[in-house]
Amino acid sequence: MTHWSVMTLAAAAVALAGTAQAENRLTYKSAKTGTSYYQMGVELSEAVREASQGEIVMTVEESQGSVQNVMEMRARGADYVFTAPPSLVADAQAGTGAFQDKAAPQFAEIRALFPIPTLTMHFVMGGTEGSTGLDALEGRSILLGKGSFGATEGQKYLELFGLTDKVTIADAELSNAGDALTNGQIDGFVTAGSFPAPNVIEAAAGEGVRILSLTEDQVAQTGQAQVVIPAGTYPGQDQDVRTTGLPVVAYASTAMDEETAYQLTRAFWEERDRLAETARWWAGVTPDQVAGIGTLHPGAARYYEEAGVATAE
């Protein structure tokens, strides 16, 4: 082999090594496949790859929910990114709620990066005529689903507003809500998801639906954040809908280096407008939400300082 051939191969090896070093591989854990939050993860990973020119490659990994996401961070490393509500992270760090007797020192290392679309409560009734307040639930058969945030929160609201004995709870899977509503098996359903929620769009495409609105006083009684679903979000929805929601945030841990957290956070915000053009649920994510997402990763904090975004810190 000639001297030049050896030099060429050596240069190629150095170039390949540089490429391998530049590519930062992360794992993004969010929700079950087929859900809106899993789809968001796919959209986000593509946007981050685009914004970073391929330097950050994020693999979306299926999850059974936010509690699993938080629990798994104990055994994960610097490449782990996950989603969860800030209240759940607070429970983990305090050893309360779902994390009673499951406290771990790693939970103290959780750091926020950026908000993602809010988990929004939808009270959906079949038909376009009739009341748009929670009183529309009275005397009706309602599907709550099982085991989800929406089901738990929905049951809480029925009890809170004295509707438990005035509503029949249907025994069916929430995944069949659209068909069950169309077939007259149920009169309505309760679901939680980012808006526009695919299952609500599906139900509205039939004979139409109306999404019930809470009063300001009712929202205050729930203890959750108020969320407004803008008019026109769903077919036939000509007025804003006031409801509640649970903020959701993308987190990492202190094991992630500052530069990676900085680049990931910057990539998200640089792509946020383009994401909203192709998937409307991203339009609900705004910089003014950053102040409420918890303790920031130093890399994310550096980005927000440079961008002039107000933070709690």
What attributes does this structure have?
2 domains; D-Maltodextrin-Binding Protein, domain 2; ten-stranded mixed beta sheet; 313 residues; alpha/beta; globular
Radius of gyration: 22 Å
CATH homologous superfamily of the largest domain, by name?
Periplasmic binding protein-like II
Query: According to CATH, what is the class of the largest domain?
Result: Alpha Beta
Count the E strands.
Answer: 10
SS strand fraction: 15-25%
| Broad structural category | alpha/beta
Order of helices and strands: HEHEHEHEEHEHEHEHEEHH
CATH architecture of the largest domain: 3-Layer(aba) Sandwich
Number of helical regions? 10
Structure description:
The protein is built from ten helices and ten strands. The protein has 313 residues and is an alpha/beta fold. The chain folds into two domains: 24-117 and 247-307, 3-Layer(aba) Sandwich (D-Maltodextrin-Binding Protein, domain 2); 119-244, 3-Layer(aba) Sandwich (D-Maltodextrin-Binding Protein, domain 2), CATH 3.40.190. Strands 1, 2, 3, 4, 5, 6, 7, 8, 9 and 10 form a ten-stranded mixed beta sheet that branches. The termini are far apart.
